[in-house]
Amino acid sequence: MGVSFSSPIHDPSERRVTLRYDEIGNRLKAYRLGSNLSADEIANQLGISRTALYRFEKGELAKIETLERLAELLGVSIPTLLGVGIEYIPSAVSYFERMRQIEETSDQIIVLSGPISLLLSSDNFMLTLEEVLTENVTKNVANRERALSDIPKLMEILRARKDAYRRRRPAIVNLMSAMEIERFLHHGLVGRSGLPEEVLEQRRALAREELDHFAQLLENPPIGVQIGIVTDTLPHTGFQIFRQPDRKILVLSPFRLGGEPNIRVGVAMITSAPDALSFHEASIDEMWGRALKGQNAANLVRQLLASKRVPNDNEDFSNPGKAPKRGSRNKRPSLM
Hints:
The protein is an alpha+beta fold.
Protein backbone atom coordinates (compact mmCIF):
# COMPACT_ATOMS: atom_id res chain seq x y z
CA MET A 1 0.00 0.00 0.00
CA GLY A 2 1.34 3.43 -0.90
CA VAL A 3 1.96 6.23 1.56
CA SER A 4 1.19 9.89 0.95
CA PHE A 5 4.19 12.17 1.10
CA SER A 6 3.17 14.29 4.01
CA SER A 7 5.60 16.54 5.83
CA PRO A 8 7.69 14.56 8.30
CA ILE A 9 7.54 17.34 10.88
CA HIS A 10 4.56 18.12 13.05
CA ASP A 11 4.16 20.88 15.60
CA PRO A 12 2.59 19.57 18.80
CA SER A 13 2.35 21.95 21.71
CA GLU A 14 5.55 22.09 23.72
CA ARG A 15 5.48 20.20 27.02
CA ARG A 16 7.20 21.08 30.23
CA VAL A 17 10.45 19.20 30.83
CA THR A 18 10.00 16.62 33.61
CA LEU A 19 12.53 14.53 35.44
CA ARG A 20 12.63 10.99 34.09
CA TYR A 21 14.24 8.45 36.37
CA ASP A 22 13.79 5.76 33.71
CA GLU A 23 16.06 7.85 31.46
CA ILE A 24 18.68 8.08 34.20
CA GLY A 25 18.57 4.29 34.44
CA ASN A 26 18.87 3.98 30.67
CA ARG A 27 21.93 6.22 30.65
CA LEU A 28 23.50 4.15 33.41
CA LYS A 29 22.91 0.91 31.49
CA ALA A 30 24.29 2.40 28.26
CA TYR A 31 27.37 3.57 30.15
CA ARG A 32 27.86 0.12 31.70
CA LEU A 33 27.68 -1.60 28.31
CA GLY A 34 30.13 0.82 26.71
CA SER A 35 32.58 1.23 29.59
CA ASN A 36 34.02 -2.30 29.65
CA LEU A 37 33.46 -2.28 33.42
CA SER A 38 31.58 -5.04 35.21
CA ALA A 39 28.32 -4.45 37.05
CA ASP A 40 30.15 -5.05 40.35
CA GLU A 41 32.81 -2.45 39.51
CA ILE A 42 30.22 0.20 38.67
CA ALA A 43 28.13 -0.67 41.74
CA ASN A 44 31.22 -0.22 43.92
CA GLN A 45 31.90 3.21 42.41
CA LEU A 46 28.30 4.22 43.12
CA GLY A 47 28.40 2.82 46.65
CA ILE A 48 25.48 0.45 46.09
CA SER A 49 24.98 -3.29 45.67
CA ARG A 50 24.83 -5.05 42.32
CA THR A 51 21.12 -5.74 42.90
CA ALA A 52 20.51 -2.06 43.61
CA LEU A 53 22.42 -1.19 40.43
CA TYR A 54 20.05 -3.26 38.30
CA ARG A 55 17.04 -1.68 40.06
CA PHE A 56 18.58 1.72 39.35
CA GLU A 57 18.91 0.80 35.66
CA LYS A 58 15.21 -0.11 35.58
CA GLY A 59 14.25 3.39 36.70
CA GLU A 60 13.83 3.08 40.45
CA LEU A 61 14.49 6.18 42.53
CA ALA A 62 17.94 6.60 44.02
CA LYS A 63 19.35 8.58 46.91
CA ILE A 64 20.78 12.00 46.12
CA GLU A 65 24.30 10.83 47.03
CA THR A 66 23.95 7.99 44.49
CA LEU A 67 22.87 10.48 41.83
CA GLU A 68 25.86 12.66 42.70
CA ARG A 69 28.23 9.69 42.34
CA LEU A 70 26.62 8.72 39.02
CA ALA A 71 26.99 12.28 37.71
CA GLU A 72 30.67 12.17 38.68
CA LEU A 73 31.07 8.75 37.03
CA LEU A 74 29.50 10.03 33.80
CA GLY A 75 31.43 13.30 33.97
CA VAL A 76 28.32 15.50 33.93
CA SER A 77 26.54 17.89 36.27
CA ILE A 78 23.49 16.88 38.30
CA PRO A 79 21.15 19.06 36.15
CA THR A 80 22.51 17.43 32.99
CA LEU A 81 22.04 13.97 34.52
CA LEU A 82 18.43 14.87 35.29
CA GLY A 83 17.79 15.79 31.67
CA VAL A 84 18.37 19.55 31.69
CA GLY A 85 21.08 20.03 29.06
CA ILE A 86 22.96 17.92 26.54
CA GLU A 87 23.89 14.27 27.01
CA TYR A 88 27.35 13.53 25.56
CA ILE A 89 28.28 9.97 24.55
CA PRO A 90 31.90 9.14 23.57
CA SER A 91 31.29 5.40 23.10
CA ALA A 92 29.65 3.80 20.05
CA VAL A 93 28.33 0.91 22.16
CA SER A 94 26.72 3.32 24.63
CA TYR A 95 25.40 5.44 21.77
CA PHE A 96 23.69 2.59 19.91
CA GLU A 97 22.26 1.28 23.20
CA ARG A 98 20.76 4.72 23.82
CA MET A 99 19.29 4.62 20.31
CA ARG A 100 17.72 1.24 21.09
CA GLN A 101 16.22 2.62 24.29
CA ILE A 102 14.83 5.76 22.64
CA GLU A 103 13.41 3.86 19.66
CA GLU A 104 11.49 1.54 22.00
CA THR A 105 9.08 4.36 22.87
CA SER A 106 9.18 6.48 19.70
CA ASP A 107 6.20 6.90 17.38
CA GLN A 108 8.16 8.58 14.58
CA ILE A 109 11.86 8.47 13.66
CA ILE A 110 13.45 10.93 11.23
CA VAL A 111 16.87 9.81 9.99
CA LEU A 112 19.62 11.72 8.19
CA SER A 113 22.64 9.42 8.36
CA GLY A 114 24.79 8.10 5.53
CA PRO A 115 23.65 6.13 2.48
CA ILE A 116 21.99 3.34 4.49
CA SER A 117 19.49 3.46 7.34
CA LEU A 118 19.98 0.48 9.66
CA LEU A 119 16.29 0.09 10.49
CA LEU A 120 15.35 -0.15 6.79
CA SER A 121 18.35 -2.24 5.73
CA SER A 122 18.11 -5.77 4.36
CA ASP A 123 18.93 -9.00 6.18
CA ASN A 124 22.00 -9.46 3.94
CA PHE A 125 23.33 -6.11 5.13
CA MET A 126 23.17 -7.28 8.74
CA LEU A 127 24.88 -10.56 7.87
CA THR A 128 27.90 -8.71 6.43
CA LEU A 129 28.02 -5.83 8.90
CA GLU A 130 29.95 -7.61 11.66
CA GLU A 131 32.75 -8.49 9.23
CA VAL A 132 32.85 -4.90 7.98
CA LEU A 133 33.06 -3.50 11.51
CA THR A 134 35.80 -5.98 12.42
CA GLU A 135 38.00 -5.06 9.46
CA ASN A 136 37.53 -1.40 10.42
CA VAL A 137 39.57 -2.09 13.57
CA THR A 138 42.98 -2.15 11.90
CA LYS A 139 46.22 -3.34 13.50
CA ASN A 140 47.39 0.15 14.42
CA VAL A 141 44.20 1.08 16.31
CA ALA A 142 44.77 2.04 19.94
CA ASN A 143 43.16 -0.37 22.43
CA ARG A 144 42.54 -2.78 19.58
CA GLU A 145 41.56 -5.73 21.79
CA ARG A 146 38.86 -3.71 23.50
CA ALA A 147 37.64 -2.32 20.18
CA LEU A 148 37.30 -5.86 18.82
CA SER A 149 35.56 -7.07 21.98
CA ASP A 150 33.01 -4.26 21.62
CA ILE A 151 31.82 -5.50 18.21
CA PRO A 152 29.79 -8.54 19.42
CA LYS A 153 28.08 -6.30 22.01
CA LEU A 154 27.40 -3.74 19.31
CA MET A 155 25.92 -6.34 16.95
CA GLU A 156 23.64 -7.64 19.70
CA ILE A 157 22.32 -4.11 20.23
CA LEU A 158 21.86 -3.51 16.48
CA ARG A 159 19.94 -6.78 16.06
CA ALA A 160 17.73 -5.81 19.01
CA ARG A 161 17.03 -2.45 17.33
CA LYS A 162 16.03 -4.17 14.09
CA ASP A 163 13.80 -6.63 15.94
CA ALA A 164 12.12 -3.82 17.90
CA TYR A 165 11.50 -1.84 14.71
CA ARG A 166 9.89 -4.81 12.98
CA ARG A 167 7.77 -5.50 16.05
CA ARG A 168 6.59 -1.93 16.70
CA ARG A 169 6.71 -0.41 13.19
CA PRO A 170 7.04 3.28 14.14
CA ALA A 171 6.77 5.76 11.29
CA ILE A 172 10.16 6.43 9.74
CA VAL A 173 11.38 9.21 7.45
CA ASN A 174 14.77 8.58 5.82
CA LEU A 175 16.67 11.28 3.93
CA MET A 176 19.52 10.01 1.73
CA SER A 177 22.15 11.76 -0.39
CA ALA A 178 22.74 10.87 -4.04
CA MET A 179 26.43 11.71 -3.57
CA GLU A 180 26.67 9.33 -0.59
CA ILE A 181 24.98 6.63 -2.66
CA GLU A 182 27.49 7.14 -5.49
CA ARG A 183 30.38 6.90 -3.03
CA PHE A 184 28.88 3.74 -1.51
CA LEU A 185 28.62 2.16 -4.97
CA HIS A 186 32.21 3.09 -5.81
CA HIS A 187 33.81 1.79 -2.61
CA GLY A 188 31.35 -0.93 -1.65
CA LEU A 189 30.44 -2.19 1.80
CA VAL A 190 33.96 -1.96 3.23
CA GLY A 191 35.47 -1.26 6.62
CA ARG A 192 38.90 -0.08 5.47
CA SER A 193 40.99 0.65 2.41
CA GLY A 194 43.49 -1.76 0.88
CA LEU A 195 41.26 -4.83 0.63
CA PRO A 196 42.08 -7.40 -2.09
CA GLU A 197 40.40 -6.71 -5.42
CA GLU A 198 38.29 -9.88 -5.27
CA VAL A 199 36.95 -8.81 -1.86
CA LEU A 200 36.24 -5.31 -3.19
CA GLU A 201 34.21 -6.77 -6.05
CA GLN A 202 32.16 -8.80 -3.59
CA ARG A 203 31.57 -5.75 -1.40
CA ARG A 204 30.58 -3.58 -4.36
CA ALA A 205 28.09 -6.27 -5.34
CA LEU A 206 26.67 -6.19 -1.80
CA ALA A 207 26.36 -2.40 -2.00
CA ARG A 208 24.45 -2.73 -5.27
CA GLU A 209 22.13 -5.33 -3.73
CA GLU A 210 21.45 -3.04 -0.78
CA LEU A 211 20.65 -0.06 -2.98
CA ASP A 212 18.38 -2.23 -5.11
CA HIS A 213 16.60 -3.10 -1.85
CA PHE A 214 16.11 0.63 -1.17
CA ALA A 215 14.86 1.20 -4.73
CA GLN A 216 12.21 -1.44 -4.08
CA LEU A 217 11.26 0.32 -0.83
CA LEU A 218 10.87 3.55 -2.80
CA GLU A 219 8.64 1.88 -5.37
CA ASN A 220 6.54 -0.04 -2.85
CA PRO A 221 6.98 1.63 0.56
CA PRO A 222 5.63 -0.20 3.60
CA ILE A 223 3.02 1.66 5.64
CA GLY A 224 4.67 4.45 7.61
CA VAL A 225 7.91 4.54 5.59
CA GLN A 226 8.89 7.67 3.65
CA ILE A 227 12.24 7.98 1.86
CA GLY A 228 13.61 11.06 0.11
CA ILE A 229 16.82 11.44 -1.89
CA VAL A 230 18.55 14.82 -2.15
CA THR A 231 20.73 15.32 -5.23
CA ASP A 232 22.78 18.17 -3.79
CA THR A 233 24.56 18.73 -0.50
CA LEU A 234 23.46 17.25 2.81
CA PRO A 235 25.08 17.89 6.21
CA HIS A 236 28.14 15.72 6.87
CA THR A 237 27.10 15.10 10.48
CA GLY A 238 24.16 12.74 10.70
CA PHE A 239 21.26 13.44 13.02
CA GLN A 240 17.96 11.91 14.01
CA ILE A 241 14.76 13.29 15.51
CA PHE A 242 12.57 11.03 17.62
CA ARG A 243 8.96 11.86 18.42
CA GLN A 244 7.54 10.23 21.52
CA PRO A 245 4.11 10.75 23.10
CA ASP A 246 5.40 13.30 25.61
CA ARG A 247 8.52 14.78 24.02
CA LYS A 248 10.87 15.09 21.04
CA ILE A 249 14.56 14.12 21.08
CA LEU A 250 17.38 15.28 18.81
CA VAL A 251 20.45 13.08 18.37
CA LEU A 252 23.63 14.15 16.56
CA SER A 253 26.28 11.52 15.98
CA PRO A 254 29.63 10.96 14.27
CA PHE A 255 29.13 7.19 14.50
CA ARG A 256 28.04 5.43 11.33
CA LEU A 257 27.52 1.93 9.98
CA GLY A 258 27.80 0.39 6.53
CA GLY A 259 30.39 1.56 4.03
CA GLU A 260 33.40 3.22 5.67
CA PRO A 261 31.97 2.90 9.19
CA ASN A 262 33.04 4.77 12.30
CA ILE A 263 32.47 3.07 15.64
CA ARG A 264 35.55 4.36 17.46
CA VAL A 265 36.05 8.12 17.19
CA GLY A 266 33.81 11.00 18.14
CA VAL A 267 31.18 12.16 20.60
CA ALA A 268 27.43 11.85 20.06
CA MET A 269 24.97 14.33 21.59
CA ILE A 270 21.37 13.90 22.75
CA THR A 271 19.10 16.80 23.69
CA SER A 272 15.47 17.85 23.93
CA ALA A 273 16.31 21.56 23.91
CA PRO A 274 13.49 23.38 22.03
CA ASP A 275 15.85 25.68 20.10
CA ALA A 276 18.02 22.82 18.84
CA LEU A 277 14.93 20.84 17.82
CA SER A 278 13.38 23.83 16.07
CA PHE A 279 16.46 24.53 13.93
CA HIS A 280 16.90 20.89 12.94
CA GLU A 281 13.20 20.43 12.18
CA ALA A 282 13.35 23.46 9.89
CA SER A 283 16.39 21.94 8.18
CA ILE A 284 14.56 18.63 7.67
CA ASP A 285 11.53 20.40 6.22
CA GLU A 286 13.74 22.28 3.75
CA MET A 287 15.62 19.15 2.65
CA TRP A 288 12.42 17.10 2.47
CA GLY A 289 10.82 19.73 0.26
CA ARG A 290 13.55 19.45 -2.40
CA ALA A 291 14.10 15.69 -2.14
CA LEU A 292 13.04 13.23 -4.82
CA LYS A 293 10.51 10.69 -3.59
CA GLY A 294 8.61 7.64 -4.75
CA GLN A 295 9.14 6.48 -8.33
CA ASN A 296 11.25 9.53 -9.19
CA ALA A 297 13.68 8.65 -6.39
CA ALA A 298 13.66 4.99 -7.42
CA ASN A 299 14.50 6.02 -11.00
CA LEU A 300 17.46 8.01 -9.69
CA VAL A 301 18.77 5.05 -7.66
CA ARG A 302 18.39 2.68 -10.61
CA GLN A 303 20.24 5.14 -12.86
CA LEU A 304 23.07 5.31 -10.34
CA LEU A 305 23.15 1.52 -10.26
CA ALA A 306 23.37 1.50 -14.05
CA SER A 307 25.89 4.30 -14.53
CA LYS A 308 27.52 4.98 -11.13
CA ARG A 309 27.21 8.67 -12.03
CA VAL A 310 26.04 11.46 -9.75
CA PRO A 311 23.00 13.12 -11.40
CA ASN A 312 22.73 16.79 -12.21
CA ASP A 313 20.40 18.61 -9.84
CA ASN A 314 18.27 19.84 -12.79
CA GLU A 315 17.65 16.40 -14.31
CA ASP A 316 14.12 15.01 -14.53
CA PHE A 317 13.55 11.50 -13.16
CA SER A 318 9.80 11.35 -13.71
CA ASN A 319 9.99 8.93 -16.67
CA PRO A 320 11.86 5.67 -16.02
CA GLY A 321 11.76 4.71 -19.70
CA LYS A 322 13.71 7.70 -20.99
CA ALA A 323 17.08 9.21 -20.32
CA PRO A 324 16.87 12.05 -17.83
CA LYS A 325 16.41 15.45 -19.41
CA ARG A 326 17.55 18.84 -18.28
CA GLY A 327 15.08 21.36 -16.99
CA SER A 328 12.99 21.77 -13.87
CA ARG A 329 12.67 18.73 -11.66
CA ASN A 330 9.39 17.26 -10.53
CA LYS A 331 7.31 19.83 -8.73
CA ARG A 332 7.75 20.10 -5.02
CA PRO A 333 5.03 18.02 -3.36
CA SER A 334 2.58 19.71 -1.06
CA LEU A 335 3.70 19.09 2.52
CA MET A 336 0.71 18.47 4.70
